[in-house]
Structure formats: structure tokens, C-alpha cells
């Protein structure tokens, strides 16, 4: 018997995490193998919905029975390939039998009765092909090219012949390595449906926190978009847009350049979580050019200077590994907590929200391996960990749309519950953005009379109503970032669609061009819309 290949260390670690019940591990498993599993199921069944069902069944089986995988039997990829083929073949036999049963004379149709089979055919069992015939079919079986009858015969034979079973597993693994999965046919929403079904059947011992879920979902969607890009797409020009000092600015980049930017900017959270910095190894990563500290733009410039040539498709691997590491580490920091308040360098709150410092176990007990800082520095301001993860999800979606537009590919908004998290963060950051614009002379002066508005006191407010996906209402205090929005002190009301508001906050829509319904003080409405655009950055 041929010696089986030893499974990679990565597979053994994945098995350990699945057995432990880490939801992040299930997401990583799906991201690695869903295109392969779905592509194989589709080739066997020739039906998109049936392939979706088999994909769900495969990952559900793995999540419920992680011990069914024996590392000594070979790589995880080969095992999943064999499992996907077996489940797809079973479904093909089931649907084929059902079609045969219903394909005859319908009851009451008045048609001729079926002709009975000859007595010999009814009494004599099916002929079993000889061993050499079955062995010759192994290649076709690995390619899912056998007829249903041949598939049944081969799989029954594999149960009793160890040599053929080993050869079949080797061939199936080779096919999996050589076949290019049809990932563009994979429904982007299938990931959420599969993971939800798995976690409902077996609740995770280590769930992905709600504040990390948008980042997990958006990075997975972007990675699915990048899956089949060739060299031409990776070097396609992308225009990044944002607002700076009240003016629209832009920068030309490429698809690979955008992924490099996301890698370096996500590194802010990676460093806060104690992970490797993608800028690590540089003696002076900022070259004295950033007086404000390591903001995302400065990090991207440092990342570019550290590379001898422009980014290529090779940036995808490190970026995806970092995104998985962020979700995995965030899952180990603890459960959900209240939303924090963005904090400026001057110490004032940059948004109206709950107590800062939520998320993870900030400053945990000595020796706690999962203790993390409560905030992530962004240069001019800091964000609580949970808000920083939502911020990274928002930027991932925005730049994924930039990439999709560059390659002329459709791209949907995030799931409504994730979109709501992004809108909520932007709404809580508006008071701080208003204060910054006011100090720069870009917004109307505060109307507080002789006295400043105390922290926590009610202040003049604009009611921000977000309609459609991720909608809700927020009272935005106008005159002090630490004040509280008050319906009694409302001076204006502005309404926008959820996606439109996010594109305004991303700098993709100018404030005066935003499709907003408004009532009340026009100056207050203009200040809020301009503050939303001021949240944007490269």
C-alpha cells in the first residue's frame, strides 16, 4: 500500500481549532475550500442550487464531526474533496432515482401500463464489473466523469479495496490541486448561509464577536472578488477618492496597490492586538514624514517606500492571512461590550456613545495572553477596539467597490446588520468631526452663549434619519463633541438612504450632491453633511 502524505501543520492546527469550537476557524475553512467544494459539486450535479446544498452539507458535517478527519489519512484538502464528491454522488443518485420514479406513467393518465421486465431480469442481480474494469474507472471517477451507475459501482468497490481507495484519494487530491475552481459562480451570500446553519446546529465555544463580524464578512467578500483576477486585473487602475480640508481629492492606484493599502492600514489593529506589523523590519517606517503619528495614509506611504517595485498579485496572500489573524485574535479577546467613543488626541470625545474602552480584555490581569489595549491609534484620534474593527470593515467595503468598479464587476452593499454597525460608528464620530472643522474655520461657530456645553449635557442637535438598509435615527449634537443629542433641542432634520450616507462618509459623494431630504436650520444640515464627508480618508 502506498504511503499517505503527511498532512500539513496548518491542517492539524485547523482540526484542533474546529474541535475546540472556534467559529473563526470555520470561516477560514470555508474561505480556503468553498470554491473547491462548490465547484466539484456543481460538476457532478450540474445545478447551482444543488451545489449550494452540498456545500452546506460538507461544512456542516465537518463542523459537527471534526474528529471524522484523520490527519494520518492525508491532507485536509483531499479529505474534503472525497467528502464533497460522496455527498454530491449520493444526491445525484437520490435525485436520479426520484426522477426515474416520477418519469413513468402518471396516475390516472390513461396511458398504457408499464411493460413488466422479463422474469430473468427481475430475478438476476446486477452484474458487478471485474476489478481491472473498476480500477480503470478511477481516473474518470476522480474527474466526476462517471455515469451514475459507474459511480455507484466504483464507490462500492472502494469500500472493500484498500489499494484502489488509496489510489482514488490520490487522484482526487491531484484533481483538486489542478482544477481552477469556478469561484465567480459562487454566490457571495452563500458563506453567511453556510456558517449560520453550522453555528445553529453546533453553537461555537469561541464565537466571533458581533463587532468583528462585519470585518470577517467584508474581507471574505473582497477575497472572493479577487479569487479569479489575472495579472491584467491586478494592475487595473483604481481611483481612490476622499475629502480633505473640505476639498475633494483623489489618488490613482491599482488593484494590487489598494490591497497593499488595506494591509498596511489594518496593521494598526494588528499591532494593537499584539500581532506582527506588516511594516515590521523597517528602521524608520515613517521617515520623519508624519508628525501626527502612524495614521493609515502614513503607513501606506511607508509600505510603498519599503518595496522595490509596485505591488503585484502577491499582496493577496499576506493580506488574507492578516485578516484571518485579526478575526481569530479578536475572537479570543472576549465577548461583545458596549460601543466605545472615538477619542481625539486632545482627550475630548470625538463622538457621542457609551463608555470608551469596550472590547476584549483591555489591560487584563498580569500574564493574560489575550489582554489587549482598549484603543487603536489613528494619528489624530483613537478608536476603541470594537469600533476600529467596524472601521476596517467599512474601508474594506468601500475599496472593494472601488476595485469592482475598476474591473466592471457588480458589488452589493454589506448585510443590513453590518451596514447598521458602520452607519452607527459614523454617526457617533460626527460630533468630533464637527469640532475639528469648527477649529479649522470650516463650520459655523458653536452657539452656546456665554458658557460652554458641559460633557453629558443636552445641546443643539440635528436628527439624522437613515432610511433603507441598516437604517435608524441618531441625534447629533452640534456645539460640543462631549454633549448629548436632545430631541428638545433639535434644530434640523436630515434624511438619507443608508448606502448613500456611507458613500458620503467615504468621500465618494460630495455633501451638496448627496440625495438628502432636509428640514429646519439649513446651516446645521450643511455642517452635518460636510462633517460626514470629512470622516473620509484614503
From TrEMBL:
Task: State the coiled-coil residue ranges.
Answer: none
Tell me the ranges covered by the Putative zinc-finger domain, including all copies: 136-165
RNA polymerase sigma-70 region domain mapped to chain residues: 29-95
Q: Where is the composition biased (Low complexity)?
A: 338-347
Segments of this protein annotated with the region Disordered = 97-127, 284-317, 332-364
Where is composition skewed (Gly residues) in this entry? 348-362
Pfam families for the chain: Sigma70_r2 (PF04542), zf-HC2 (PF13490)
- Identify the keywords attached in UniProt to this record, alphabetized: Sigma factor, Transcription, Transcription regulation
Q: What protein name does the entry list? A: Sigma factor
Source organism (scientific name): Streptomyces andamanensis
Amino acid at each position: 500500500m502506498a504511503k499517505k502524505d503527511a498532512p500539513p501543520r496548518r491542517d492539524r492546527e485547523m482540526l484542533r481549532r474546529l474541535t475546540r469550537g472556534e467559529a473563526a476557524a470555520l470561516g477560514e475553512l470555508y474561505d480556503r475550500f468553498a470554491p473547491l467544494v462548490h465547484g466539484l459539486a456543481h460538476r457532478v450535479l450540474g445545478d447551482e442550487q444543488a451545489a449550494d446544498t452540498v456545500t452546506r452539507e460538507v461544512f456542516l458535517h465537518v463542523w459537527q464531526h471534526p474528529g471524522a478527519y484523520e490527519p494520518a489519512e492525508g491532507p485536509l484538502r483531499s479529505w474534503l474533496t472525497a467528502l464533497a464528491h460522496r455527498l454530491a454522488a449520493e444526491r445525484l443518485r437520490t435525485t436520479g432515482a426520484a426522477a426515474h420514479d416520477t418519469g413513468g406513467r402518471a396516475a390516472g393518465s390513461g396511458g398504457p401500463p408499464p411493460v413488466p421486465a422479463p422474469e430473468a431480469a427481475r430475478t438476476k442481480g446486477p452484474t458487478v464489473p471485474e476489478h481491472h474494469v473498476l480500477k480503470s474507472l478511477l481516473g474518470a471517477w476522480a474527474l466526476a466523469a462517471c455515469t451514475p451507475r459507474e459511480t455507484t459501482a466504483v464507490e462500492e468497490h472502494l469500500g472493500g479495496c484498500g489499494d484502489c481507495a488509496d489510489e482514488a484519494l490520490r487522484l482526487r487530491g491531484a484533481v483538486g490541486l489542478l482544477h481552477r475552481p469556478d469561484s465567480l459562480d459562487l454566490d457571495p451570500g452563500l458563506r453567511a448561509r453556510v456558517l449560520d446553519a453550522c453555528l445553529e446546529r453546533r453553537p461555537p465555544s469561541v464565537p466571533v464577536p458581533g463587532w468583528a463580524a462585519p470585518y470577517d464578512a467584508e474581507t471574505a467578500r473582497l477575497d472572493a472578488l479577487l479569487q479569479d483576477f489575472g495579472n491584467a486585473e491586478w494592475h487595473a487602475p483604481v481611483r481612490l477618492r476622499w475629502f480633505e480640508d473640505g476639498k475633494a481629492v483623489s489618488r490613482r492606484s491599482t488593484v494590487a496597490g489598494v490591497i497593499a493599502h488595506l494591509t498596511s492600514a489594518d496593521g494598526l489593529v494588528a499591532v494593537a492586538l499584539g500581532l506582527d506589523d506588516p511594516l515590521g523590519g523597517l528602521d524608520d517606517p515613517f521617515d520623519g514624514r508624519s508628525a501626527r503619528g502612524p495614521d493609515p495614509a502614513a503607513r501606506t506611504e511607508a509600505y510603498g517606500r519599503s518595496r522595490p517595485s509596485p505591488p503585484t498579485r502577491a499582496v493577496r496572500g499576506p493580506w488574507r492571512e492578516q485578516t484571518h489573524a485579526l478575526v481569530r485574535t479578536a475572537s479570543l479577546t472576549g465577548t461583545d461590550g458596549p460601543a466605545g467613543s472615538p477619542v481625539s488626541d486632545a482627550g475630548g470625545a470625538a463622538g457621542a456613545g457609551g463608555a470608551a474602552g469596550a472590547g476584549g480584555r483591555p489591560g487584563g490581569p498580569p500574564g493574560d495572553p489575550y489582554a489587549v489595549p482598549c484603543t487603536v491609534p489613528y494619528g489624530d484620534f483613537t478608536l476603541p477596539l470594537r469600533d476600529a474593527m467596524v472601521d476596517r470593515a467599512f474601508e474594506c467595503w468601500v475599496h472593494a467597490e472601488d476595485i469592482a468598479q475598476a474591473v466592471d464587476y457588480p458589488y452589493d452593499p454589506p448585510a443590513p446588520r453590518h451596514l447598521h454597525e458602520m452607519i452607527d460608528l459614523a454617526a457617533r464620530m460626527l460630533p468630533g468631526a464637527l469640532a475639528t472643522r469648527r477649529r479649522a474655520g470650516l463650520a459655523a461657530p458653536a452657539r452656546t452663549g456665554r458658557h460652554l456645553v458641559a460633557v453629558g449635557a443636552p445641546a443643539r442637535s440635528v436628527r439624522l434619519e437613515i432610511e433603507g438598509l441598516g437604517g435608524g435615527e441618531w441625534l447629533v449634537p452640534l456645539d460640543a463633541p462631549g454633549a448629548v443629542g436632545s430631541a428638545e433641542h433639535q434644530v434640523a432634520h436630515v434624511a438619507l438612504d443608508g448606502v448613500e450616507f456611507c458613500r458620503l462618509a467615504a468621500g465618494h459623494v460630495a455633501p451638496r450632491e448627496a440625495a438628502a431630504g432636509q428640514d429646519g436650520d439649513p446651516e446645521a444640515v450643511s455642517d452635518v453633511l460636510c462633517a460626514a464627508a470629512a470622516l473620509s480618508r484614503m
